[in-house]
Amino acid sequence: MEKIVEQGLLYDFYGELLTKHQQEIYESVVYDNLSLGEIAETEGVSRQAVHDIVKRCDRTLQEYEEKLQLVARFMSIKDKISQISKLAAQYENGDPGDFGSYGSQIRELSEKIMQEL
After folding, report:
1. Which one, 7, 37, 86, 97, has the greatest CB density within 10 A?
2. pTM of the model
3. What is the dihedral of CA 38, 40, 41, 45, to 10 degrees?
């Protein structure tokens, strides 16, 4: 998984467990794509301090994931729902007397689940 996507997912799941200051810095890097220098200037700290905070946040979020596995479970469920949706599409394209309506219902349910995730 691309690093920025992984950082975003980890932050989505565990970001509230960081301090407010860490959240602001991390969001500036991950979501706003600001450079360490830009953040340092805005926050009135050194570039190295921003770098250290980001690294500490990365490590902390990764540790939460290692213990709780929420992102891994999310990705697994998302993959399985995608498979259900593909199966439903296959059934819909088959004989209308077969599983067409069944497949349609499965696809609708899987899309609803995806929206909830």
Report:
1. 7
2. 0.75
3. 180
Please answer whether residues 67 and 28 qualify as being in contact, where contact means their C-beta atoms are separated by less than 8 angstroms: no
Q: State how far the Cα of 27 lies from the Cα of 22, in Å rounded to an integer.
A: 8
pLDDT band at 28 (very low <50, low <70, confident <90, very high): very high
Q: Is 14 within 8 Å of 65 (Cβ atoms)?
A: yes
% of the chain exceeding 90 in pLDDT: 58
pLDDT digits (tens, 9 = 90+) for 51-76: 999 999 999 999 999 999 999 989 98
CA atoms of 100 and 77, how far apart (whole Å)? 24
Size (the chain), residues: 117
